[in-house]
Structures are given as C-alpha cells and as structure tokens.
Amino acid sequence: MLKKFITSVAVATCVSVLTTSTALAAETLKWAHVYETGSNYHKAALWAADEVKKRTEGRVEIKVFPASSLGKEVEINEGMGIGSVDIIYTGPSFAERYYGPIAISDYPFIMRDYDHWQKYRDSGLFAELSEGYKGATGHTVSTLGYYGQRHVTSNKPILKPADMKGLKIRVPNSPLMLMFPRAVDANPTPMAFSEVYLALQQGVVDAQENPLPTIKFKKFHEVQSNINLTGHIVNSLLTIVSETAVGKVGKDFDTVNTVLKESAANYSDEIYQAEQDLVAWFREQGTKVNELDKKPFKDAVTPMLTAKGVPYTLDHFNRLGAIK
C-alpha cells in the first residue's frame, strides 16, 4: 500500500512539474508602436494579443507597448534587429531605410483610393516586395494596414500649390515624406509624432499633414484652423515580426500571422469608415475644411515619381498603377 502511495505521489509530482514547465515555456513577444492607447491601432493590437493567446492555448503571449514607450519609430525599427522588440507597426516610409521598394505605396499620388489600396495589399506585387524586405532584414512583413489619406492642416486656407510656398510643415522623419512638400516649395521639417501638437501650438511649425482620424485623435484641429483636403498620400502601416520572434514561436507563427492579418483588416475598415464621417464632424467643431482641385498638386509631384533616386523600379511603378 505504501509503495502504491509513493508511486502515486511521484506521478502527481511529475505531472505538476510538466504542467508548470509548459506554462513557463510560453513565449512572450513585445509589440511596440507609437500610437496612443485610445487609437484604433492600439485597440487592434490588444485584440490580436488576446486572440493569439487564446488560439495558441497560452503558448504565445504578446505584450503591447504603445505611445513610443519603447522608442520612437526610428528606434523601434532598429530594435527589431537587436531583439529589444518583436513586433512593430511602422510606416513603409520607415521600412524604406532597409529595403527601398517596400515604400512605393506611400509615395504621393501613387495610390488612387481605398479600393486600389486593398487590391495592392492582396497583390502579388506586395507579396514580392515583402519578400524583398525579408531578404534584406530577415524580418517578416505580416500585412499592410490602412492609415488613411493624408491631408495638410494649417492656419490659412491652402487651395493651390503656391499657397504652400515657404510653409514650415512637420513631416515624419523619413525620406519619402519630403517629396510632396518639396514639390510645392514648402519647407519640410522632420519631427517625432509625439512632439507635433506642442510644436503647432507654439508656432515652431506652421502646418502638419495626417489622415482625418489621426488629426481628430491627436486634436491637431485645436491648434490649426484649416484642414485642406490634399489627399496627397494614401498611407499605410506595416505589421512586421522580427526574425528572432518567428524563430521563438516556431509552428505557432502561422497562427500569429493569421491573427495579425485579421487585426489589420479590421482596423483598416474602421479607419476608412471614419474618414467618410469626419469632414462633417470637423465642420461642426468650427474647423474650416477646404476642398480643392488636387490636379495641380499631383502635377507638381508626378515628374518626381519616376525620376532618378526613387527606391523602386519603373516596373514596380507600372505594375502598381496597373492594379485594377
């Protein structure tokens, strides 16, 4: 009887140890981004974290670090290589530093509308460029999310390119973001996202450009009297998983990747719908929303899109334009 009791205890102890070891073996991934906790992007990341834990039965956990808490956008991109972060949201304009062609969709007036954007996201071209980025960095582009059409805010109406001459406009610290303001003789001023509101309030810069949902969320309309519907960039966010993270989660990466795609598709639809509703909302708040003829702005930029120095090929440019 005593022997049976000891055997039972030993078996129970082994089961307990194995269960504890399994729990401890859960891989925890750090997801870093620069957006506030109330943003669609952060909420989508939290949803994804819950879904990944559920679908992997706890084998993979994701901790989300919003609002530049693990660094500004340049820093979290660098963090992928040194292992300080595992997953990031980042603009194609920042990924361009590592593999130029991946940024093509964010060049001004190159993307027609949301429908064109969706078809590009699901295209062979995007898959090819994602593989190119992986070849250059080792990291995996999981998916493309919709950030919205970028518009210029200012304290005066901007209706034609000449209205932007000399305008000191904040842009993200990335090379492609300089193209549009330079084409219209503005003065682009790179600055971290977290610093923009105060810079506008104090007159350090005269203007900034972002999609309508971002303008609302960051309350830029409180310190800028005009929103000018230039729609000069149909902007995206890449969700990227580091090479190290893919290795750590092993067979569970397919599940993680599926969830990341679903998460981005969900917030993309939300952002697009918000764009449809916000013009009226801003006008209700007393902000002047100026509709304008985009053609003169596009004409100013067009020669630059195929000029020497762009990071994509003419074939990439033509294939993107041919997507219907």
TrEMBL record:
Primary location recorded for the protein, binned into one broad class: other
Is the keyword Cell membrane in the record?
Answer: no
Instruction: Describe the family membership recorded for this protein in Swiss-Prot or TrEMBL.
Output: Belongs to the bacterial solute-binding protein 7 family.
Q: Which InterPro entries match?
A: DctP_fam, TRAP_DctP, TRAP_DctP_sf
Whether Transport counts among this entry's keywords is yes
Q: Please provide the record's keywords in A-Z order.
A: Signal, Transport
Which is a GO BP term held by this UniProt record? Answer: transmembrane transport
- Give the protein's recorded name: ABC transporter substrate-binding protein
- Organism equals Leucothrix arctica
The cross-references to Pfam families, in alphabetical order and at most eight, read: DctP
Q: Where in the cell is it found?
A: Cell envelope
**Would you indicate the residue range of the signal peptide?**
1-25
Classification via Gene3D superfamilies: Bacterial extracellular solute-binding protein, family 7
Cellular component terms (Gene Ontology):
outer membrane-bounded periplasmic space
